Records
---
Amino acid sequence: MHGNRKRFLRAFLLAALIGVLMAPRPCRAASAAEIDRGVNKALKTLYAKNPTAKSLGAKAKAVLVFPEIVKGGFMVGAQFGEGALREGNRTTGYYNSVAASYGFQAGLQKFGYALFFMTPSALEYFKKSDGWEIGSGPSIVVVDEGMAKSLSTTTLQSDVYAFFFSQKGLMAGLGLQGTKITRFQPSK
């Protein structure tokens, strides 16, 4: 009985901590300048740590970067972040990334990700979508460190490549399934 009480207390404290961290705060969308600064910093960091991402960036038709996604939950989880689509060195749109999940999960995590659009058709599909749900449309390959070492200009065959970066915190699982990306207009 004493062991059950300890487990319940731990679960309760973890749920309370997550509840405090996830509690609604005054919501304010980032300005275009704030998002662009975050995207610049994220790409600089990603390219410095991952030469494959840098070479993909040079060949990509566009790169969609979410510098900071916040993911948290206890049994039911959610994640949210804002980013920008870069074509060349120019921002051509601002997007948010939202996902919800359920199942055995607990924790809080921050991370960033970048989607490299390699084909004009994949980029066009994304731009025409009114809220793109990842998993529908162009094929996406999530690149981990081992795979990044084996990619070359001759092995690039997918429409979109995804790189995760700057992971902090603890939460089991990191993926894009169920993520919906929607265009929005930030404040100036």
---
Amino acid sequence: MTDPEIIHSVLKGKKDNFRILVDEHHASVFHIAMGFVHDRDEAEDLTQEVFIRAWQSLDKFRGDSSFSTWLHRIAVNACLNNARKKRGSPVISRITSLFTSESEAETQALSFSDNPEEILIKEEHSTWLQKALDTIPENQRTAIILSKYDDLPQKEIATIMNLTEGAVEALLQRAKKNLREKLSTGAKKIKLNRRK
């Protein structure tokens, strides 16, 4: 059964079929939530909240976009609302891949594993990354999370965010530039602190 067929059956009374949609889309919603909160329990709570909202609004799904796009939009809104409620807590995300290749990341992970000082430096850099992510504009952060965490194409990100593909590309470029600048400043401060 396709998503529209499942939705039709749920709306016609076969409510248990909603479980099929949950099973099919759980992982992608969870990835989005992890991109915003980086805590498994909190991401799971947010994922559950997203599916509750989807269940409550299922009769409003018009089919203008795919069900997954509609669901991702609900997920982003839930995550942004959660972040607004918790102002001051950092939004953590694993997006170091924006700045390093996979092989570099693996090499760094190996080199950090043996040296306690290197581990401390890595933790300091991670803290700066968290702070940097927390300070970039909401729409940039959303675009990066959808792109890097859920690996969505720009076309779908544009639909979710109600933007053009060009606008999404510009957001991603600005976000990368902002993060590079903030991380560069953070790295300089870490070096200065270590010299004291």
---
Amino acid sequence: MDFAFEVLAEHGVSPSMAQIARQGFRKTGEILAPLTALLTLVNGIRGDVAHNDVMPAPRHAGAVPSYAMDTYTREGKQSFARFLKTNAGTADWILENLPNRGRSAFLGEWVFRIEGGCLANRWAGDAADQLRKQYELGCLGVTAEQAKQVLALMRGDMHILDRIRADVMGEQK
């Protein structure tokens, strides 16, 4: 694998990025780290300072951060199932536009985009901007217009989901 990192250096990946990629690969064994290093070549970073995304205010369901109740926890799955039974705009859209199978997973993906899609130290560049837009609007099997609509609906419905999450956590005592 050393050869691969030598090739990255020959093609212009900065020494610091190559070292970060090398450590990422060493720790995870995943090719994602070296591929990320390659992205630095096409990103065309604009400016010399990273910017922080606007982070949503921290929310809790009881003593637990709300983001901890996601599609990978029993309480999160229960909260999503209850949310889909409400008259929230997002729930209505999902019920009208998606088959029954996968609705909770779809909801979980949108909630993650709102709760977990923000970054500290985000570098702006053409490739980064394109990948972010593709991730947010193009990776769930709906049109970009539908994706924008659902994101707006979900942002407006987060307080409903948080109330349900708090109820679920209250029942766990």
---
Amino acid sequence: MKKGRPTWVFGYGSLIWKQDFPFLDSRPGHIIGWQRRFWQGSHDHRGSADNPGRVVTLAAAPGHTCDGRAFLVEPVVFEHLDHREKNGYQRVAVDIVFESGPISGVLYRASEDNPAYLGPASLDAMVEQINRCEGPSGSNRDYVLQLARCLRSLGVDDPHVFAVESMLLRR
């Protein structure tokens, strides 16, 4: 990220549908070597300290791609984004691949060593947790359903997200 210049931010979770920040441009893109997983705890948005929700982070996955949406933002926007993504997420440099080719940007990732990291769990356990959690930003269930809806609108097939969504809808 060059100081003073607009930067591309890759969104793979709630940034896809909740742009509560100004941006100069937006376009679909993907990153290579990562998969979206419901392995991060949300104590601040979709759950509470006693009952954290599950939101997506990225897990290393050589040979895979993670599709999403990128936003070109002015440097001042990072003050807001850093606060929004504070619960274990860190800004990480990444190459974002657009139809026209790759470009340097950043994303927010919650690594395995952050205090809110929940890690993998069975589909049943994740869905049970998601179904009961609610926080200041709404229900954890709505987060999953919004993400699935937005991924479909982008033409993205994400088996992990859609499996969680499918089980949520059956309960």
